[in-house]
Structure formats: C-alpha cells, structure tokens
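Hi, here's the filled form for the chain we discussed.

Project: internal
Contact: R.S.
Residues: 156
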Amino acid sequence: MDVPGFLPGAEQEWNGIIRRGAKLLYAYAEASVPMVTLITRKAYGGAYIVMGSKYIGADINLAWPSAEIAVMGAQGAVNILYRKEISEAKNPEKARAELITEYNETLANPYLAAERGFIDAVIEPNQSREYITKAFRTLKTKRDTLPPRKHGNIPL
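And the returned structure, exactly as it came back:
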C-alpha cells in the first residue's frame, strides 16, 4: 500500500471522491476472503483506513521500516499544528524543517503503529515475499461468514 490520502477540495468532491471512497470501504468491509496489507510508503488518514487497515478487518498488516503511517503527511501536519511556533521563530524555515523531522521520527513511523497494534510486524523489504506467503498460508483455512441477508446496502 502506498496511499497519500484523499485529496481535500471541492473539485474532488464534485468528481465523486466521497461516493467512490464509500464504495471501496463497503467492498473491503464486506469481503470475507483473507486480507493481507503491506505498507511500503505512505498510509495517511481516511484513505489508509479504507484500504486494508485493521479497522475494517484486515487480518495481517505488515509495514516496511520506511513506511509513514499517520493522520496526514508531516509537512501538512506541522504547518497546521505548529503554525504559531513557526511564525514566531527567528528562522521559520529551519524551525519547520526541525518540526517535520521530529514529526516523522516520533509520530509517522511504523514502529509506533506496531506498538499500538495497528501493524503486526515491521519487516525489511527483502522479507516481503516470505511474510506475505506465510500470512496467506496461515489464513488459508479462514472462513469468515457474514450475517444472512438477501442483499447488502451498498452506498451509491
């Protein structure tokens, strides 16, 4: 997975981002097959939640050490969270750069997500095939059953 998030804005809304996102969320939530997610780069905000997170029932979540898992990217988050501190700094660009580095190191890393149970393992890229194969072997007998009903209520 490499998902930088849903782009905010009126244009995206007019083009149906909410409707399409709801359909994707519905499909993942209704899936009864094994779900294994590998985060290779960015996993931000609602887009991450919709695309194979533990929140919607992914069975096994893995991440590379370089993965960034957060509500939003460091640059945008720092600009919002530390607007006042940056504007009052003697050197705003240096302050922004330091805060971005701190955000990435302390908040947007896979180790924090693993510590909190959102990621099952942080693996090296060269271990990906091995871990994914093991995950599917582990899940080969998975039998998820959904409640009986005539049809779902897909958001259109």
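Let me know if anything looks off before we file it.
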